[in-house]
């Protein structure tokens, strides 16, 4: 088994760093997590189901949070078939498969946030099949405008914190949570910087490269990921590439289940510069830093209620998803929107209907298709994307 | 059942009349100036809304009516034309299709909402459904966030406090829309009616413990439960259950039931396939199957484990009720419920009807099948179709599975009763 090495410190070039991150991401069995556990005997690795889990509390409890994004196309569904129906999204099925087949036997626990009906019920399936493991279902408040939601969600966070303390046998202090908040604020700031550079110079910061760098954070201790990103920003600056004729697009729908990397490559090759996206959005969930002073649980609760990006699985309250997307289109000079929904993902499929209507009303071109984790043929998407790009380049006034 | 019986048919016919009258009130609501609130069956806090004078409309009930009257297919296609995916809930698409074609269904014309109350956040589809309606009608949407009921914990006070705080906020919204103040006495009176109806409904449900059962707790329950879901809290609802109980009492007295000869007693998990309801029922009747307990009859409230609305604690008991609808229970609680039903009602088998439309209901049912067949040794039949979309009902396939299942059960029973000497190898 490979020990957890700090490859980002050694990386000589942007391509080398990206390649290492890509390898890390395409290993759903998480050999780096296994290595981390070997180097930290007795410590716990806790799985977090997307979209958003307050990982700060896990870190404060001394655990390694590991975002579980399913099989990433690398896993055949075999054991999970008899426990979960075929009309369910790939991520739920392949995450369960990873568990049942023993690929992630390093997992000490699983936190499932209330993002959709499938995730909610998956927590029960998991509990039944891994009765000795720690499973915590976290209720993220939906009635975000109600003051009662703040008190309630703070209570939920307290419950998570105390359950983790029981699991590890160590109390979790407020100061430890504040320290973790600082680490995550730094991580979000670095990710924001990386994504801003990509939006400014998409050819220099290809979407798949940026994606792989961000994805590594799902499997590494977050303070190490911060160092990786700092190194990436330096190496990326030196990675000069000629600009291409592209259209600037936003990608929506991939907030939970992730598309195959090839799909992102195909979009880019077709001329779509994805400069705004919701890929692995949980790591970039807050629009402003979480308060680093005061009651840290209330700080996390307030951030969740008032300062999140809008996805199909958190409630906008007084805000409007359509207005938000239209505003982003303007701010980022977007020329089109791609709705890429995972097959069977109801929240994404419902939202795309309303968002499309708003975009079409504003005269913005829209492309829509569905994907699956195990998708291997991309020619139809390529053709659709090329047509989409040409129609914008040659016929659109934007 | 012959005409010499006095009460037979009451449960079905009376509810049909009540629902007809309710739909007429809805049709006339705009003319009468009655405010209309849309809400869901799960977490249905209708008593609170009615106390402000709202007439209640349940889009789910409209969808199932369209299903059973076989018009849902067209509505669903209409919604798919508008951009909805073939993989999303058929109830939602039925409703969107209905709204897009003038909001007139087999039940008459439907009024627009003055208020949308998403009474249950446990089903993400509900939230999406009402977000779409809020945009369509430009109506105000109140989202009642109902935390999931999790195992290993007694009812968490924080969950109830959170729901109560939101009910207080909802009351303020209702007062603003209707210009009527919140009247706790009026609400309490209504909850006293709810409680009386709940006592009677539980008595009807528990009558299925008898052998033979006088009542099919799935195929008949869907009719008998309608008033407690859509008219709960009214005097007419209590009257209905008093009359329905007379029908059940008479059946017990004369040992009559939904099948002429009860050969198998089953527990059913999952909703019915509305567009093929009758055909589906017939497949069971042919084998003398009576459903003695079902989970679908608990989607709008679980009262057979002791919960009741309480006039002395109006908002608190509404919160308790909302947290304890069937699909808001986690899988351990749901499994325990099925286990308890199988034992208490002496079931021979469990039947799971898994529907694609409702992931909140169905995701986890395959795991439950594993549990009952492998751990509990209870024969379990698993069939898949849909609650609204007629395209998913493959009758020949379902019939084959069902026939094979009950044939095997019958064979097992015969083998168990055969004298020792006659058994092969004995």
Summarize the structure.
The complex is a heterodimer of chains A (398) and B (426). Chain A is α/β, with parallel strands linked by helices and 398 residues long. Chain A has 15 helices and 8 strands.
Strand content of chain A: 5-15%
Distance between the termini of chain A: 52 Å
Strand order of the largest sheet of chain B: 2-1-5-6
Predict the CATH topology of the domain at 28-176 in chain A.
Rossmann fold
The CATH class of the domain at 28-176 in chain A, by name, is Alpha Beta
Helix count of chain B, per DSSP? 17
Q: Roughly what percent helix of chain B? A: 40-55%
Spatial extent as radius of gyration of chain B: 22 Å
Write structural notes for this entry.
The complex is a heterodimer of chains A (398) and B (426). Chain A has 398 residues and is an alpha/beta fold. Chain A has a domain at 28-176: 3-Layer(aba) Sandwich (Rossmann fold), CATH 3.40.50.11890. Chain A has 15 helices and eight strands. Chain A has a four-stranded parallel sheet with strand order 2-1-3-4, sandwiched between helices. In chain A, strands 6-5-7-8 form a four-stranded parallel sheet. Chain B is of the alpha/beta class. Chain B has one domain (10-416). Chain B is 51% helix and 10% strand. Chain B contains 17 helices and ten strands. A four-stranded parallel sheet of chain B has the order 2-1-5-6, sandwiched between helices. A four-stranded parallel sheet of chain B has the order 8-7-9-10, with helices on both faces. In chain B, strand 3 and strand 4 form a beta hairpin. In chain B, helix 7 (157-178) crosses helix 13 (314-323) and helix 8 packs parallel to helix 11 (235-253). Chain B is globular, with a radius of gyration of 22 Å.
């Amino acid at each position: 088994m490979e020990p957890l090495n700090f490859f980002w410190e050694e990386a000589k070039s942007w391509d080398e760093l990206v390649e290492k991150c890509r390898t890390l991401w395409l290993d759903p069995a998480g050999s780096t997590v296994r290595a981390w556990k070997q180097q930290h005997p007795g410590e716990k690795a806790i799985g977090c189901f997307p979209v958003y889990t307050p990982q700060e509390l896990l870190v404060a409890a001394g655990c390694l949070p590991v975002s579980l994004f399913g099989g990433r196309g690398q896993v055949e569904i075999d054991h999970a078939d008899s426990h979960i129906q075929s009309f369910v999204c790939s991520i739920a099925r392949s995450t369960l498969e990873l568990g049942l087949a023993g690929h992630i036997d390093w997992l000490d626990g699983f936190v499932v946030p209330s993002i959709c009906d499938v995730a909610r019920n998956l927590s029960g399936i998991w509990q039944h099949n891994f009765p000795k493991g720690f499973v915590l279902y976290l209720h993220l408040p939906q009635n975000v405008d109600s003051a009662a939601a703040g008190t309630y969600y703070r209570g939920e966070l307290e419950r998570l914190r105390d359950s983790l303390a029981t699991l590890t046998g160590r109390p979790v202090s407020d100061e430890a949570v504040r320290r973790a908040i600082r680490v995550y604020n730094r991580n979000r700031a670095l990710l924001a910087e990386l994504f801003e550079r990509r939006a400014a110079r998409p050819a220099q910061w290809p979407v798949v490269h940026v994606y792989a760098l961000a994805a590594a954070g799902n499997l590494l201790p977050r303070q190490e990921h911060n160092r990786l990103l700092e190194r990436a920003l330096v190496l990326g600056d030196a990675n000069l590439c000629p600009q291409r004729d592209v259209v600037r697009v936003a990608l929506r729908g991939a907030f939970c289940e992730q598309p195959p990397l090839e799909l992102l490559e195909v979009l880019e090759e077709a001329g779509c510069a994805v400069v705004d996206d919701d890929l692995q959005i949980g790591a970039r969930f807050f629009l402003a830093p979480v308060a680093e002073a005061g009651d840290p649980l209330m700080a996390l609760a307030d951030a969740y209620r008032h300062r999140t990006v809008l996805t199909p699985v958190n409630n906008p309250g007084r805000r409007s998803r359509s207005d938000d997307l239209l505003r982003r289109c303007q701010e980022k000079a977007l020329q089109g929107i791609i709705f890429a929904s995972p097959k069977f993902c109801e929240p994404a499929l419902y939202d795309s209907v309303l968002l499309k209507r708003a975009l079409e009303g504003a005269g913005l071109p829209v492309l829509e298709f569905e994907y699956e984790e195990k998708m291997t043929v991309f020619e139809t998407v390529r053709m659709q994307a090329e047509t989409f790009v040409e129609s914008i380049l040659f016929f659109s006034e934007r | 059942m012959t005409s010499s019986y006095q009460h037979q048919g009451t449960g079905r016919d009376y509810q049909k009349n009540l629902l007809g009258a309710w739909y007429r009130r809805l049709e006339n609501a705009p003319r009468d100036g009655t405010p209309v609130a849309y809400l869901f069956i799960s977490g249905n806090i209708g008593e609170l809304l009615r106390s402000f004078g709202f007439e209640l409309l349940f889009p789910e009930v409209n969808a199932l009516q369209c299903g059973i009257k076989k018009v849902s297919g067209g509505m669903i296609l209409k919604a798919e034309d508008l951009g909805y995916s073939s993989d999303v809930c058929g109830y939602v698409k039925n409703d969107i299709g209905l709204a897009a074609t003038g909001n007139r269904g087999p039940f008459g014309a439907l009024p627009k909402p003055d208020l949308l109350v998403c009474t249950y956040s446990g089903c993400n589809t509900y939230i999406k459904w009402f977000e779409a309606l809020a945009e369509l009608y430009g109506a105000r949407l109140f989202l009642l966030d109902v935390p999931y009921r999790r195992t290993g914990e007694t009812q968490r006070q924080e969950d109830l406090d959170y729901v109560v705080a939101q009910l207080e906020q909802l009351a303020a919204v209702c007062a603003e829309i209707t210009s009527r103040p919140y009247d706790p006495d009026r609400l309490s009176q209504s909850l006293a009616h709810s409680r009386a109806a709940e006592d009677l409904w539980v008595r009807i449900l528990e009558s299925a413990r008898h052998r033979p059962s006088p009542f099919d707790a799935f195929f008949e329950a869907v009719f008998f439960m309608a008033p407690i879901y859509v008219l709960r809290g009214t005097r007419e609802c209590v009257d209905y259950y008093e009359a329905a109980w007379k029908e059940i009492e008479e059946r017990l007295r004369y040992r009559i039931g939904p099948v002429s000869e009860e050969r198998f007693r089953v527990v059913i998990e999952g909703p019915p396939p509305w567009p093929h309801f009758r055909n589906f029922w017939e497949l069971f009747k042919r084998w003398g199957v009576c459903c003695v307990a079902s989970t679908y009859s608990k989607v709008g409230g679980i009262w057979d484990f002791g919960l009741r609305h309480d006039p002395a604690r109006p908002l608190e008991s509404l919160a308790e009720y909302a947290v304890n609808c069937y699909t808001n229970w986690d899988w351990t609680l749901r499994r325990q419920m099925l286990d308890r039903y199988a034992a208490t009602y002496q079931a021979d088998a469990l039947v799971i009807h898994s529907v694609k439309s409702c992931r909140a209901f169905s995701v986890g049912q395959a795991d439950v099948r594993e549990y009952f067949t492998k751990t509990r040794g209870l024969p379990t039949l698993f069939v898949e179709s849909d609650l609204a979309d007629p395209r998913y009902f493959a009758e020949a396939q379902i019939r084959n599975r069902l026939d094979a299942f009950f044939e095997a059960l019958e064979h097992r029973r015969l083998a168990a009763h055969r004298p020792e000497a006659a058994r092969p190898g004995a």
